[in-house]
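The instructor's notes for this session suggest beginning with a concrete chain rather than abstract definitions. Hand out the sequence below and ask the class to guess, before any prediction is shown, which regions might be ordered.
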Amino acid sequence: MFFRLLWLSFRTRRGPRIQPTDVARTAFRVWPTDLDVLMHMNNGVYLSIMDLARIDLMARSGAWARLRKRGYYPVVVSSTITYRKSLEPWQRFEVETAIIGLDGKAGYVEQRFVRGGEIHARAIVKARFLAKSGGTVPMDELAELFGLDLAAHPLPEWVRECSERAALPTRREPAPSTWEI
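After discussion, reveal the predicted structure:
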């Protein structure tokens, strides 16, 4: 992934500029190091590539520079991905990345792995933005940084509902591992 990050940094500087509200399309290829024992792209690699595609969206839109200037950085809170078709060795594909909304604490991004116009996998990622000085970035400030009109970008109800059901207690609350099978 390190070499992909370097290559992405190079491409991002010379790539077309976009708005944070646009769909970013980031091109990739399946390399031999991405494969699992079944000779298709490993499920864990999808998550790493999604990180790179989100960086591409933020960098090409100028949001990454604005975040860094203020000492803010994103952290993934949760993600869910559905796989439809395998990606095979050497195949080219794109990851389409779009902000789909904000709630009171986090931003949500949809990411699609697309090849030949067909969705191979789709993910929803929930991210919080933290300040290096401590604390969470308020959503109204984040919306301003990304140029988002909160009223025009309501979080889809099914995403909100899924996020609530998957949530764990905060770091300060106990979260014992008990099984009810």
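Then share the key points. Strands lie at 24-29, 72-83, 92-102, 107-115, 118-131. DSSP finds five helices and five strands in the chain.
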